[in-house]
Design brief:
It contains four helices and no strands. With 132 residues, the chain is mainly α. Residues 1-27 form the signal peptide.
Length: 132
């Protein structure tokens, strides 16, 4: 009977050790996954900022491109904001969102060549904080 209790204790101890060993790996993978999501979305935002630059340059030909580029950036910002609890990333998202809002307001007020340098700078900061 004593041998059976030792076997159960040993089995229970091995189960606990296994669970403790797997837990950090799971948490680590989750952090890596979030960082990868951040990098991929920041990359998509960088592409959208490039599109915005081209849209502003070509606003006379197709003024709707600017709005579409701003929408794409905002959609990607929502994705990052939903996936992270990192203070630096959230700050960069807020700054980029504010810059996009300022450009949108300028366009609505008739500015055909709005200053998008704050958008570019904020997107660069977001890319920097998302890079692991």
């Amino acid at each position: 009977m004593a041998a059976r209790h030792r076997t159960r204790r040993r089995t229970a101890a091995l189960a606990v050790i296994t669970a403790l060993a797997v837990l950090p790996a799971t948490v680590g993978c989750d952090a890596v996954g979030k960082a990868l999501d951040c990098v991929q979305t920041a990359d998509a935002i960088a592409d959208s900022v490039t599109d915005l630059q081209q849209a502003v340059e070509n606003a006379a030909n197709d003024p709707t491109q600017t709005g579409e580029s701003l929408n794409a950036i905002e959609n990607n910002l929502d994705k990052i904001g939903d996936k992270t609890d990192n203070a630096d990333v959230n700050k960069a998202v807020d700054e980029l969102s504010k810059a996009v809002g300022n450009v949108r307001t300028a366009v609505k007020n008739g500015d055909t060549t709005p200053d998008i340098s704050p958008v570019t700078a904020a997107a660069g900061e977001l890319t920097k904080v998302c890079t692991p």
